[in-house]
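User: Please predict structures.

Assistant: First:
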Amino acid sequence: MYSSAFFMSDHDGRVFRESFFSCDIFMDVVVDALCNVVSASPAKAATAIVLQAERELQPWIAKDDDQGQKMWRINQRIIKLIVELMRNHETPESLVILASASDLLLRATDGMLVDGEACTLPQLELLEVTARAVKPVLEWGESGLSIADGLSNLLKCRLPATVRCLSHPSAHVRALSTSVLRDILHTSSIKSSSKSVNINGIYPSYQYFSSGIIDWKADIEKCLGWEVRSQLASGQSTQFLQAAAKELSCSISL
């Protein structure tokens, strides 16, 4: 039923896609609709969503009026669609298209520190699926290396904001940010399936991808140190940061 919208005439398809983000009636069926679309044509689904999202995605700014709430709802739905597509690791075509839309992913996660759980949670969910997508991408071998690098660049860019979320007033935000960081740490141990490469006469069965040179633990610990010093300077408690560091097996240097 819903997947046919992506095979309608240009006008009808445009009307459907615009309503997909703006109409409340689609909120409850968006996941089922997306699954149907992806099954029929993953590449077309991802392309349509990226094109529409690039037009509809709004800045994450704090606004208490009706217009501000509408902007947030549109952003939440856009991210929901992207997250569901990226979770489907059985459709590499859609993952490639989404991972290649680096500017869109940066815009979608550019408001993590805006007050409000409703604003922060969707962005953390997007970072979580990004971190979890690294492993299946690397299983593609050499063809997945550049995609993995793009995903890692997004995670690295948003690392300071993710660490700052560890001291968020919302327990849900703190838990999700910890989960994101745990998944990021896990990418350090992932190896890329690839053809054997002759390295000084050695033919390894696996090859680390270029983003593997990132020392994620060191970077996270550095961000934790910055955040703890900032909290102490402003007279705030570092209890949540200390607890998260312990859970992640990270140390904090002051």
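Second:
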Amino acid sequence: MLDAATAERFATLTLGHLMREWPYKLDQVLNGPADLALPATLHPIFHGSFDWHSCVHGWWQVMRLARLFPTMDQAAAIEALADRMLVPHRVAGEVAYLDRPMTGGFERPYGWGWLLALHDELALRPDRPWAAALEPLARAFAARFAAYLPKLLYPVRSGKHDSTAFALIHALRWARTHDAALVGVIEARSRLWFGADRAAHPWEPSGEDFLSATLCEAVLMQDVLGADFRAWLGAFLPHPYGAPTACLRTPAVVTDRSDGRLAHLDGLNLARAWCWQCLADDLPEPTSARLIAHAHLQAALPHLADDYMGEHWLATFALLALTD
């Protein structure tokens, strides 16, 4: 459960890097010398937090915190920043970047999913102009999902940014409110890719994972299958507390939090905490699942700000685990 003190801690952390321009890692193909530009020129909104997708989900985080805790000290600053940044002319600049040549793979699919999650969060505040301003960018990424998914013959079963399941969790939740046709595409492809999966024997974690490929697949199918999900989950994880899935129940160990890729494993612990919480009520012994989630959460929460390589993104996954 997220309390006010933790919310303020997360907000302070994220406001500290949301507009921090350096260091910054671009996802860009240069077509010529004219493409060379500062991150703030290329991305008029999302040029902080080390990289584009971390800035996007940093915005998701602070906007969710401001909605859930409107009286916290940072809420006014968050909303004032949104009034300055989440505006049509800046959104137009972000859309224009997508119109450049060779941007089809830009942030696919991780950043796409998070952008839709941000728009979904903003839409919960219809009294403010932010969702309407961001909608052209959300629609652009929804169109990219709709064009890409039918061509993706095999899902990417990964614990990193290219994970199909994780991105589609966010995309499907957005689409249920904003794009009925995309719901149909996501559900059909998910059933095709994952519907027959049985008796998962996960080989996790890989050394630089920040997502659980196995558990993210289950969370996606929970959203896709509805009332049919428990039967699918029983076949997919027939022994959730047995030896074949022991690796999913053991928090990962981080050896160097100054190494951005090794620090991913803190994120894996937070992502697993979120997944176990999401799945608990559909598993036997829900209390056991929640205890596993708690152990993973406690393994990572003390380390959110140990180094900027984790600080620029980990609090988002902590918030996901505590509020979703």
